[in-house]
Specification:
Elements: E1 2-6, E2 12-16, H1 23-53, H2 93-109, H3 113-116, H4 123-140, H5 150-155, E3 177-180, E4 183-185, H6 192-195, E5 202-208, H7 223-245, H8 261-267
Parallel strand pairs: 1-5
Antiparallel strand pairs: 1-2, 3-4, 3-5
Helix pairs in contact: 1-2, 1-4, 2-4
């Protein structure tokens, strides 16, 4: 069966499993894929900065180089970081292209566009994409990255997300809960007890943290349909506004309302206009 996990408009993916799988194992695998997708998102954001501006500075030494009181060591491919978070000692731009390419491919492997393409995700495929990024980083920086560099921490799975936009996004595979049709699936049961025995079933499910309660219901219409409905409503509203501003007897100026139109047609003076 195929499960379509939708936690939000942007956070969704397909997962292929069997109805004989347990809810516990399925939830853990879904949570793992969920975490890997967000990990790739973080790697792409920071990896692009790494390719352009080099390794991160120590947290207590961050600052824009041009305002530094101490002389700044500049390598052959120095590129000052405008945020002051990185040293500016970038790697060879030709080598950096490999890192950028691997970041793009990893992002494509975790993209929500795969839902429309009907391509399920697997944890192994996402881990392979992260492994390729790790290899590209080693090629760019053979000496390795400092321990405080976010890219290294992310590759090692030990980044501190507290106080960031990504804080609270990851789920604990052991305690996450799975919801289907507004109901929480009990971990000790099989998927078939909730979704039937047909292996070709497609179900829309959601992941939640333990104790977070039921997820928000999906809107009755998708975003594109809602935009079309709002555009139609606005058009009708403008038409009604124009009609309300028109005079009640404005129709009398129309040719079809002229009581003498037949007589004028026979007289051949239909198109005669009297100057005002």
């Amino acid at each position: 069966m195929v499960q379509d996990l939708i936690n939000s408009e942007e956070d969704q993916f397909l997962f292929d499993t069997t109805v004989q799988a347990s809810v516990r194992d399925t939830t853990a695998e879904l949570a793992k894929i969920h975490n890997l997708r967000h990990r790739i998102t973080r790697l792409k954001l920071e990896g692009e900065e790494l390719a352009k501006y080099g390794p991160a500075k120590q947290p207590d030494q961050q600052g824009i180089d041009q305002y530094s009181e101490q002389p700044v060591q500049q390598g052959p491919f120095y590129n000052m970081d405008p945020t002051g978070r990185r040293t500016g000692d970038a790697c060879d731009p030709e080598v950096a292209k490999k890192l950028t390419q691997e970041l793009e491919q990893a992002a494509a492997a975790a993209s929500k566009a795969l839902v429309q393409q009907k391509q399920p995700l697997t944890a192994a495929a996402l881990e392979a994409a992260i492994g390729n990024i790790r290899g590209a980083v080693m090629i760019c920086y053979p000496a390795g990255l400092p321990a405080w560099d976010f890219v290294r921490q992310c590759l090692e799975g030990r980044e501190d997300l507290s106080g960031t936009n990504f804080g609270g996004v990851d789920l604990d595979p052991a305690s996450a809960t799975l919801w289907f049709a507004g109901k929480q699936l009990l971990p000790d049961k099989l998927l078939s007890e909730y979704m039937g025995r047909n292996e070709r079933t497609r179900a829309v499910v959601k992941l939640q943290k333990k104790g977070q309660g039921p997820p928000a219901r999906e809107p009755a219409v998708d975003a594109d349909t809602q935009k079309a409905m709002m555009a139609w409503y606005y058009k009708k509203q403008e038409e009604q506004k124009a009609l309300s501003q028109d005079e009640e007897d404005a129709y009398t100026h129309s040719s079809w309302a002229n009581s003498k139109s037949l007589k004028q047609a026979f007289a051949g003076i239909n198109s005669v206009r009297i100057p005002r």
